[in-house]
Write the structure tokens for this entry.
Amino acid sequence: MVSVIQNFICTDEKRLQVMLDNLPALGEAFKDFEFHVNLNDTVNLEIIQKEYEKNIKKLNFYNNLEKQWAEVTLSMLEEVKTPYMINLCEDQIVHFDSNDLQNVLDEVKELDIDYVNLTKMGKYSKNTFPGYTECEYGYSYVGSDSPTGRLSTDCMAKIDFWKERFVEFIQNKHNCPHDIPYPYENIPNYIEGYYDHSIGIRRFKDLKCYIPKKIMFVEYNDSLEKGTYI
């Protein structure tokens, strides 16, 4: 049903250790799912590739060094054969097991959800927002009722919808509505700057959205390496 996409660098030793410590849990939770992983650098390449091969059963591992995050990610998305993809940062620490994941996936499939928000889950995984409909394992809502205006890349989404977003971004990225930290077109967070404000998630008014009740990922933010792309 879902494939995992990761396109990242990891040059900081503390961040590297967090990622390596998390890999066994990631591999166990997604043990039946295919991974498409690109390390966009040569720093720590050997150890990262070795640990991915050790912990991820269905692995496609790349070392594409082009500093064009969106273009490289789109090329990976084109290889996905499942109806959904999940985009994971390497610093998203797993706080769930395969049963939790399957419960959410079953509900997402039943509701025919287009987009699942997986960012700032401690804030948004609560039934305190207008427009939320409570389900057994999560909350559903439409894009116009999204509690956040930004279309986050930390998400699960229907593959066709997500590829369309990358194509749109690549064609129009010179028109990003505002400068977010590290405002450079070739780094991951710039696409979130593009999909914000008037052209953010709320413009997809009827988009079927969802967020799990369980906080499935906790983000490790002690070391931001976006400057390495520049």
About this structure: Residues 222-230 have pLDDT under 50 and may be disordered. The two ends are 35 Å apart (CA to CA).
